[in-house]
Amino acid sequence: MAKEKKMHKGTFFVMVFLAVLATCLIVEYNTLFFSTFLDNRIEKHKTDIHYLKAESYPLHFVITDRKSTNTEKEDVISAKVSFYTADNIMITEPSTYIIRGKEVFFDFIIVEKKEGSKLVFPYSIFSDTIAPDDAIFIAPLYNIKGFPAIFGRSKATGLSDISTGSNEFDKELSAIYADILKRKELKNSYGNAVHDTCKLGAFIVGQEYRVLVHTKGGIEIVMGE
Question: What is the pTM of this model?
Fold first, then answer.
C-alpha cells in the first residue's frame, strides 16, 4: 500500500509541473503576441506621422489674368491650378478657371486625427462674388483610383501605384476622400479658406504661388521659386 501511495504522489507532482509549465508557456505566448501587436500599432502611427510631418505643397496656382471694371459683376480672374504629390510630382496637367470677382479664395477641408495631426484636403475655389455654395469643386482633380494622390509618393511604376507606404493609412485616407467627393459632412473636420485681398495686396499676375500645408493644420500661401 505504501508503494502505491508513493506512485500517486509522483504522478501528482508531474501533473503539477506540467500545469505550471503550460501556464508559463501561455503567459509567454500572450506577452509576445501583445508585444508584437503593440509594436505594429506604434509602427503604424510612426508611418502615418512620418508622411504628415514633412511640409507639403499640394496645390500650385498662377493668376494668368485679372480684369477689373467699374461694374463688380464684370470683374474676372483667370487662374491655372495644379496638384502635386507629397514628393512634388505633378498629378495632372493644370486646370484653367475663369472666376468672377476681385478676390479669389481657396477652400480646404481639415480633418483632425486622434494623435493630433491633421489631414488637409483642397476642396473648392470661390470669390467675393461667387458664394461658397456655388464654388468650383476641385477635390476630384487629385483623384487616382479613389486615392487622394496629394498624400502619396510616386513609385518607379508611376502615379498609378501611388501610396503613402502604409496600406492601413491608404485605406483611411481613401475612406475620408470618398466622403469628401460625395460632399458629405465629416466628423472632426472644419473648413479653412486662404485668399488674396485688394487691401493687403492681390496675387501678382504671372507669378506662381504654392499652398504650404503644415501637419498641425496650418495653411499659408508662398511664392514659387
Answer: 0.75
